[in-house]
């Protein structure tokens, strides 16, 4: 019996080391030697600034950024806003990392005009009395010819996590009118949404064992799942029916900590962050059925948090390079800081010189990459045979930490980055700000 038990234990340990050993070594057991700050476009001290709410100081602890595009009849962008999901009470209420002490303070949606640079909180109209508001992942459908847009967001409410539906009108962009609250027994720990139509979306479920379990099981089992990376989470596709009920379909199973999700501009590819394995999974999507087929993975040099496609379908990935440092910030330890890292992922251009697939794979694995960054991604993550990975921003947390979502406006070249436990949002410009 002992030998059978030892054999099973050895097998499980080998599987763990094979799947999660690299991520645990680089992101838990050791810490990266990151600089105070680095921006790919130039000296971060000249190009980057943190925008804040100078009036009330409430623009902080932001999770997600999305574009809200206003289109004309021919689908040309006439105006572009940014929407941020923020929660100043995150240090007291966080169903992903803990603690779960006080859910009373409301989170806030913010809207930022890329034309004027104005920043305003979004008022919640028709919001149910007594219903908590702790926004996490958000997505909004573009407005065409002045039509209102549907917005969906994950809400970490006190009793259970829900999906909230709002409508935003371009004529009154600082007001979000609540439409309905979506609930399901399948919403165990929803995290991120990616719209496929005005009334349907992909939804990640990032943990099976959550902090909502009775103490002490919630914190212990959730941490084991976070670090160990068992394939217990999933992506679902949700359709909101005319009567307000939902149709839930599993789209992809067996993911380790399925976090941020994003749909490519052409709707043919879906990217999902696997935080525990420090990977991004790329799926091929069938638009007629919303079925997903795993295409390939790309390893990144940090625990990927959120993923966002740009206008040219370059994927921006941001996340956390050292888990113990991140936990220290979450637990509000004096002087704690946690690194930030954001990269771009672009498909490698198709070769026309007759190289075989094996030759391309061999060349890619041997080639150095990300050579401009002070700490190259190649020092931690092996090269991809399918995609080019380049650092956009990195910091040891001194300049800006706890990175969550990165986004680039291709029209202006401006880079935006949120920090889960930061005050304000980082903005880096393609040209020095004092020129």
How would you explain this protein's 3D organization?
By secondary structure, the chain is mostly beta strands. The chain contains 5 helices and 26 strands. The strands form 5 sheets. The protein has a 9-stranded mixed sheet, with no helix packed on it. Strands 1-23-22-21-20 form a 5-stranded antiparallel sheet, with no helix packed on it. The N terminus is likely disordered.
The total count of strands amounts to: 26
Helical amount among residues, as a percent range?
10-25%
For the largest beta-sheet, the strand count, sense and barrel status come to:
9 strands, mixed
The Cα radius of gyration reads 21 Å
Intertermini distance: 74 Å
Low-pLDDT residue intervals, each spanning 5 or more residues: 3-13
Name the strands of the widest sheet in spatial order. Answer: 7-9-10-11-6-5-4-3-8
User: pLDDT average, as an integer?
Assistant: 92
Structural class: mainly beta
Number of helices: 5
What can be said about this structure in brief?
The protein has 435 residues and is mainly beta. It has helices at 2-29, 44-47, 217-228, 323-330, 357-366, and strands at 38-39, 48-51, 62-71, 77-86, 108-113, 119-125, 135-140, 143-144, 149-155, 162-169, 172-182, 190-197, 200-205, 233-240, 246-255, 258-263, 269-274, 279-286, 291-299, 303-309, 315-320, 340-347, 387-395, 403-409, 414-419, 425-428. The termini are far apart.
């Amino acid at each position: 019996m002992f030998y059978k038990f030892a054999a099973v234990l050895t097998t499980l340990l080998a599987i763990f080391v094979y799947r999660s050993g690299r991520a645990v070594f680089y992101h838990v057991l050791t810490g990266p030697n990151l600089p105070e700050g680095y921006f790919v476009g130039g000296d971060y001290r000249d190009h980057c600034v943190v925008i804040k709410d100078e009036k009330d100081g409430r623009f902080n602890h932001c999770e997600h950024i999305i574009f809200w595009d206003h289109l004309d009849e021919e689908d040309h962008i006439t105006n572009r806003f940014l929407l941020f999901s923020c929660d100043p009470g995150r240090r007291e209420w966080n169903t992903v990392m803990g603690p779960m002490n006080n859910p009373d303070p409301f989170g806030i949606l913010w809207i930022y005009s890329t034309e004027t640079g104005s920043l305003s909180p979004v008022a919640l109209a028709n919001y149910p009395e007594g219903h908590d508001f702790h926004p996490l992942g958000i997505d909004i459908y573009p407005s065409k010819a002045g039509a209102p847009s549907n917005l969906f967001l994950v809400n970490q409410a006190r009793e259970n996590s829900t999906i909230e539906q709002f409508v935003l009108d371009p004529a009154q962009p600082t007001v979000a009118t609540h439409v309905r609250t979506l609930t399901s027994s399948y919403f165990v720990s929803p995290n991120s949404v990616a719209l496929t139509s005005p009334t349907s979306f992909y939804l990640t479920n990032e943990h099976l064992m959550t902090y909502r379990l009775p103490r002490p099981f919630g914190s212990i089992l959730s941490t084991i799942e976070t670090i160990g990376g068992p394939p217990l989470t999933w992506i679902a596709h949700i359709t909101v029916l005319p009567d307000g009920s939902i149709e839930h379909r599993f789209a992809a199973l067996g993911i380790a900590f399925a976090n941020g999700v994003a749909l490519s501009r052409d709707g043919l590819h879906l990217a999902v962050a696997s935080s525990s394995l420090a990977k991004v999974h790329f799926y091929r999507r069938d638009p007629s059925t919303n079925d997903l087929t795993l295409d390939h993975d790309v390893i990144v040099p940090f625990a990927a948090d959120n993923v966002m496609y740009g206008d040219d379908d370059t994927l921006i990935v941001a996340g956390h390079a050292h888990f113990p440092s991140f936990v220290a910030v979450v637990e509000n330890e004096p002087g704690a800081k946690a690194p930030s890292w954001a990269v771009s992922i672009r498909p490698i251009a198709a070769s026309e010189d007759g190289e075989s697939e094996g030759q391309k794979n061999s060349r890619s694995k041997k080639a150095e990459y990300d050579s401009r960054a002070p700490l190259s991604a190649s020092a931690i993550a092996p090269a991809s045979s399918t995609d080019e990975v380049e650092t956009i921003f990195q910091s040891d947390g001194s300049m800006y930490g706890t990175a969550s979502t990165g986004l680039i406006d291709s029209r202006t070249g401006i880079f935006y980055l949120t920090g889960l436990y930061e005050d304000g949002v980082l903005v880096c410009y393609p040209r020095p700000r004092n020129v």
